[in-house]
Amino acid sequence: MKIHTHRVLKVFALFLFFCFVASFISIPDVNAQITAQQRLMAKRAAKVDALRNLLETVYGVRIDSSTTVRDFVTQSDVIRAKLDAVIQGAREIDYIEQPDGTAEVTVEVTLGRVEDVVGRRIYYDRETFRATGYGAPSGSPAGPSSPPPMMGGDIVRAKGNGVEPNDPSMGNAERSLMAKRAAKLDALRNLLEQVYGVRVTSDTTVRNFVTQSDDMRARVNAFIQGARVVSERALGDGSYEVEVEIEIEPLRRMLITR
User: Fold this and answer.
1) Pairwise CA distance, residues 164 & 181, whole Å
2) How far apart are CA 221 and CA 4, in angstroms?
3) Residue extents of the structural domains in the chain
4) I want to staple 54 with a disulfide (CB 3.0 to 4.6 A). Which of 131, 191, 226, 257 is the partner?
5) 163, 176, 169, 186: which is closest to 244 by C-alpha?
6) pTM for this model (two decimals)
7) Are 151 and 157 in contact (CB under 8 A)?
8) How far apart are CA 135 and CA 102, in angstroms?
9) Is 98 left (phi over 0), alpha (psi -120 to 50) or beta?
């Protein structure tokens, strides 16, 4: 009986020791495990989701629903939401990164007359609409967030980001140049989305109140001339940020002559 009591006390003492040690061990920061590429991908997904939400508010969304009830019991309930529209002049005004890596992007647009999905013309009289979207990093769950694109009276500006390729055969200089090139193209894409607009297509399927699939596509296909790089810098997470700008008046003249 004494031996049994001694063992119990020994186990209890070890338990208290491990609890004491665990109290001084810090839990790894989940955010530190997120790579720069995952962060940028999550931010892009959030922006596309925000544009989709903005379009659903302004233009409307087509809902296709089918419910089957047998003997007063719902057997199946399927909802499909489809969207296919173009939005122009939408601006990113806020970006928040949550502790779990989730990105939150808010966009807004000021509208005059628009035509919705059924051909109706709607006059918004310079009303401003705002919507927020969300995106999650791929895989497991760093750099400061970049400020929203700036639009002045005669100049439109946008920023883009790029990360170095994970290719051991490349030298440091080559990887740096590749990251800068990616950041410049991302900036030009963001500039085009403001100036020319971006087409967003969305297809969501909900079955029995559970989202089965949610697919979004954002596409811009346009020619841009006269854009110039105004700044480029390396961020703390290993990515690069490039800012580009374009003058509006020469762009207007170019569009009129086409």
Assistant:
1) 10
2) 78
3) 32-257
4) 131
5) 186
6) 0.71
7) yes
8) 6
9) beta
